[in-house]
Amino acid sequence: MQLSANLGFLFTDLTLPDAIRAAKAQRFDAVECHFPFDQPEADVSAALQETGLPMLGLNTWPGDRGGGDFGLCALPERREEARAAMDQAIAYARAIGCAAVHVMAGRTDGGAEAEACFREALSYACAAAPELTILIEPLNHRDVPGYHLVQMDHAARIIDDLGHANLRIMYDLYHAQIMRGDLNGQFTAHRDRIGHIQIASAPDRGEPGQGEVDLLWLCRWLADQGWDRPIGAEYKPRQGDTVAGLGWMAAFRD
Amino acid sequence: MKLGCIGDDFTGSSDLANTLTRQGMRSAVYVGVPDGPAEAEIEAGVVALKSRSIPAQEAVRLSLEALDWLKGQGCTQFLFKYCSTFDSTADGNIGPVAEALANALEAPRAVFCPAFPSTGRAVFQGHLFVGDRLLSESGMQNHPLTPMTDPDLRRVLAKQSQTGVGHVPLAQVSEGAEAVRAAMEAEQAEGRRFIVADAITDPDLMTLGAALADDVLITGGSGIALGLPANFRARGEIGEATGDWSGEAGKAAILSGSCSIATRGQVARHKAQHPAREITAEDVLDGRLTPEDMADWLAGQEGLPLAYSSADPDIVRATQDRHGTERVAGALEAFFAATARALTARGVRRLITAGGETSGAVVEGLGLTALSIGPEIAPGVPAVRASDDLVLALKSGNFGGEDFFAEAAAVLEGAA
């Protein structure tokens, strides 16, 4: 299967252009990132062209994470910043030829106003960038207490209600395992709504190949189901050193 | 009123008022510039503006209006409170507002220190850090409206103002208030009217506070206020650390519109032992349940009754699907606001609300403009007094422990 290096967690000792080159050197098929906005677009584009790797996705700016923010787009009192963050992400994605933007909801009280605000934001992003895929990702409440979107079913309801052709779920098996499990069943139920898949071991979010879920079996099963797009490796290297931890890749590449 | 504060947003202003209260000053936060005078016993007033990301000229106008009102209340020292990540751009408004305040007050100098050690914001060598990263590598460099790409506060300020910018390094702060004062005088003598001061711990902020006892204008995050109440106390201008919260013994009620996990746990815990009634959006939208009915029921209960909106996300969403999300939200907020009004009319003296939006709707619905800060019920959630016969606890979704409602009622009643 094809694998995408998530450069928000992997090769973080390098600048983004050099991390793209390192991913290529380690035989990844694609890359994705989190918050590239302070990296010159031309340098990132040059590295993508040089390596031939596609950039699959980037995230909207999360706000002041030191101050507790984890996304802004479902926060009614932060509408202005959220709109600017979506504009920024869309413009950056276009400039470097990135295919998807993950719109981060943020921590809310789970109430109706936050939900309305999030839906309004998604409608805005979907209309502003019809050629891009807009992704929403359920996160787990243990890592991100209070995050607005935590269940696949909730994400599916949003997608069905809004009816935008370019709105999809980022299905992160690590988050989904912590919140509910039933990873095959959730894939089957939501397959047409899923735009991208990410993996990491549960419960420690380290390299695939250990932990409570057999990710190798699961990824092969996904391939059997016809999932042929690159799967995002979004894990935190256990030893801190990305390259030293890449032993898991060989089995997954077969 | 002794200390007059101007905050550039509501959350930060509440935080500042809470900080001053914890240091023993009777404090109140005002939603915008008040029309009338403050309560006589208030020692520190915080006027909360919404000026963080508005154009400099408008921010200056609003801030000067707030300053005039605070001067009219008898304040002798003024504090301009901004964000601890110094959110602004080269044409941002922190410099212009500070300059306008300094001119209006004829202040010979103003200190700048956004340090907030408990959340990792530290100023060292004039540079702002977030944790172990410079501000410009903390993620704030990507802010879509106010990207902070320069961590050197001296340079940022110099670009925003006509004033020379000086610096008091940590080495001097470590030597104590006298050394800080001498360093500030030296900078001032060199024509540097704005002075960035280093601080990496709360004791540093206490030292700065002591050194700034006679400065008419101070600027910073809420941390810079830590050491100020002691100055007023040393001069005999305010009483001893008060703790003189007198609660209200009258009827109490809880309104909960939050679906957060913490609140759902609090609701479940509370309704096991107290009268509780669920509000469904269906009943509200169909008019089967009116605010008057709800208030009658709540006021007629013994103990500590609770009215809560359906918290099961599936039920909430099913209703939203049927009626439209915005309509449901609007209807519930209007319902809570009207219920709060009806409750005060029925003699309820203690009101506890859960949920940021519910709390906001209740504050607006009751037309509250001044909130005196009382003791802390849970971290970040103070008891507040809104009038002679109404005290409140306004809780955002995810705050407080399992017994929050009962604890809040006890603190509002005056129990320690």
CATH superfamily of the largest domain in chain B: Putative sugar-binding, N-terminal domain
Radius of gyration of chain B (Å): 23 Å
Question: What is the residue-averaged pLDDT of chain B?
Answer: 90
Say how many strands of chain A there are: 8
CATH architecture of the largest domain in chain B: 3-Layer(aba) Sandwich
* Number of helical elements of chain A: 9
**Approximate helicity band of chain B:** 25-40%
Oligomer: heterodimer
Largest sheet of chain B: 15 strands, mixed
User: How would you write the strand order of the largest sheet of chain A?
Assistant: 2-1-8-7-6-5-4-3
Tell me, briefly, the overall form of chain B.
elongated
- Detail the poorly predicted runs of chain A: none
How big is the Rg of chain A? 17 Å
| Whole-number total of structural domains of chain B | 2
Largest interface: A-B, 33 and 42 residues
Distance between the termini of chain A: 7 Å
SSE succession of chain A:
EHEHEHEHEHEHHEHEH
Q: What is the arithmetic mean of pLDDT of chain A?
A: 96
Broad CATH class of the largest domain in chain B: Alpha Beta
Structural notes for this entry:
The complex is a heterodimer of chains A (254) and B (416). Chain A has 254 residues and is an alpha/beta fold. Chain A has nine helices and eight strands. An eight-stranded parallel β-sheet of chain A has the order 2-1-8-7-6-5-4-3. The longest helix of chain A has 18 residues, at 79-96. Chain A is globular, with a radius of gyration of 17 Å. By secondary structure, chain B is an alpha/beta fold. Chain B has a 15-stranded mixed β-sheet with strand order 9-10-5-11-4-1-3-2-16-17-18-15-12-14-13, with helices on both faces. Chain B is elongated, with a radius of gyration of 23 Å. The chains are: A alpha/beta (254), B alpha/beta (416). At the A-B interface, α3, α4 and α5 of A face α12, α13 and α14 of B.
